[in-house]
Design goal:
single chain, 668 residues, alpha/beta, TIM Barrel, Rossmann fold, FAD/NAD(P)-binding domain, 3 domains, 8-stranded parallel beta barrel, globular, binds flavin-adenine dinucleotide, binds NADP nicotinamide-adenine-dinucleotide phosphate, binds iron/sulfur cluster
Amino acid sequence: MSHPHLLAPLDVAGHTLRNRVLMGSMHVGLEEDRDYSRMAAYFAARARGGVGLIVTGGIAPNRAGWLKPFAARMASKRDADRHRVLTEAVHAEGGKIAMQILHAGRYGYSPLAVAPSRIKSPISPFTPWALSKRGVESTIDDFVRSSELAREAGYDGVEIMGSEGYLINEFIARHTNKRTDDWGGNYQNRIRFPLEIVRRTRAAVGKDFIVVFRLSMLDLVPDGSTWDEIVELARGLEEAGVDLLNTGIGWHEARVPTIATCVPRGAFTWVTRKLKGEVGIPLITSNRINTPQVAEDILARGDADMVSMARPLLADPDFVNKARDGQSDRINTCIACNQACLDHIFSNKQATCLVNPWACYETERTLTPATISKKVAVVGAGPAGLSAAATAAERGHKVVLFEASERIGGQFNLAKTIPGKGEFGETLRYFENRMADAGVEVRLGTRAGEAELAGFDEVIVATGITPRRLGIPGEDGDNVLTYIEVLNGAPVGERVAIIGAGGIGFDVAEFLTHQHAAESGDDAELAAFLAEWGIDGEHTTRGGLKAPHDPPPPRQVTVCQRSKGKLGARLGKTTGWIHRAQLKKRQVAMWAECLYEKIDGEGLHLTVAGTPRLLEVDTVVVCAGQLVNDGLATELGESAHVIGGAKKAGELDAKRAIAEGAEVAARL
Ligand code: FAD
Ligand code: NAP
Ligand code: SF4
């Protein structure tokens, strides 16, 4: 059997989990629906796909625990009734499901937010109210009541959210707990809150109900817990009745990336391993585990007893079954971009997935077989064309995909060269296999024009973009390169000006200032990541932080933009800060309000906020946005379907490209 550790069953609290995969809690925006049938379909698909234990998004035990006003709550019989449709749907697929109880504490985006002490978090505009002694007691009662109601609703268990800087974590850490009563002060007092919640919950729900506790094992904030404190709490939780301990890494306010694509795969399993042997209950590890092999290796070396994956199951609901059936190379791998999941949630939009636009739209976006099988030509094998070709062929059309270059992928071939974005290559592997399975005929090295497209019933134009030129003197000089030339390996000098501060300008700056580790391999990559972000890989310091290692950059880079304001302000909601922080560490200069005049042997001549300047550089790299490559679309006129960059270059990203490809193919 492939992946024997991953697929081994596990007995917990009278339940047998069919394998070691826990679908980690993830808020997707369906939690706020009045009727949970959409959420039921979403979870049922993951249960059908083989997940061992599903954990829902965070559900508040009371109003003060809301993540935002009117967020989901489990506080009454009516709430419990509403959940029943989804527990039944999961059970009908042979799955198990636990409800996560999350009290947002001072992260609640609400004037009702409460915390152990009246200390505002750096990531919320609301200052929380300090809970009174009575308030602490009634909050514990609400956790217990929520668990009882979850049981009534048909859940197999609950996960009590004790990490990521939410209320329970705020009690534990002296960073946020300044109380002087029985619930604050020394560590034993500070951990009384989680221990009482667990003890009373266990007493209320009985033995045959799974209680998972998500324990913050690495706070990554100053004044967080020490390792000895974490061990003491873990032992207390086991004694109080917890069945499974899940790993929490980093508070939301931590200035350390913990799940973005630049985080190496499985970068935090060493933390869970450190706790092995300190308690007798199974441990779940988490963060950036996105392939069956990574998960299998983690379990085989004994770092943990289960693995938690959240976004990978958004990207592919059939992840576990494909691993079981020896079809791991057919998995649609999560590339950790956050663009359609977390970024949507933080923008108050329903989550979906960049590589799987069907995610969270299980009831609305359905694919039906084509009524008539047509001859379909798709021109361009970037993300838009790949998505269109695979989807059309799966519906029963005869599809030919034309690609001018010698490989599929379009701009994703450039994206995957950026340090920390190697995951983008997985999407190309996925589409390549998916197209092969569906019988798409791929014609590489073929630039399609009207002649090649004669005889097709439908033509989809996905020809992408062309980089924008600057239109200033000197731009054709030897010292000027496009981002495409740079990422394809053209030599670049030591002093560089980058024109354009969009996603590509930032990526190119990262590419040019990245310090390649002296040694290669996963261990060296992990060590470099931990050092760069100041993570104490031994967890000997409070909160697990130490001084970051910021070696001098290999190049002196200046990024310029014409507009006013902070550079990189429009980068991803949950990842932009990482890119900005990374470039700051590399001493990259950021210039706004630039007016470019000319480029010559001296460098880039420009005015900055009205002042003439000369940026003395060896190389100027142009990342000034893109224009539609719509020559073919114009030639073909209205008979063609135009998608992706070929349709609109402004604000283009792969999320839009892949979704448009799937949508157009679903309609043919
Ligand atoms: P393209 O990817 O441009 O593909 C078009 C394809 O059409 C090309 O392969 C081209 O060779 C082919 N073609 C053109 N004309 C013809 C013809 N006549 N016949 C046959 N073939 C033809 N997006 C994100 O969402 N997140 C990111 O993190 C991200 N990072 C990026 C990093 C870099 C460095 C770059 C360059 C881009 C990044 N992008 C990112 C943008 C993303 O890659 C694009 O939005 C996406 O590739 C657009 O897809 P597309 O299919 O419309 O066009
Ligand atoms: P972009 O984000 O639109 O940025 C273009 C940059 O060029 C801006 O800084 C713009 O700002 C500047 N510019 C525009 N017209 C110019 C002109 N005529 N002369 C000089 N400068 C000009 O586009 P991009 O960086 O090319 O990225 C393309 C797409 O890929 C983006 O939409 C993005 O979503 C996606 N992408 C995403 C990521 C990610 O991490 N999520 C990474 C890479 C790419 P000023 O006008 O102020 O100068
Ligand atoms: Fe993963 Fe990106 Fe999809 Fe989120 S949007 S699940 S990070 S691939």
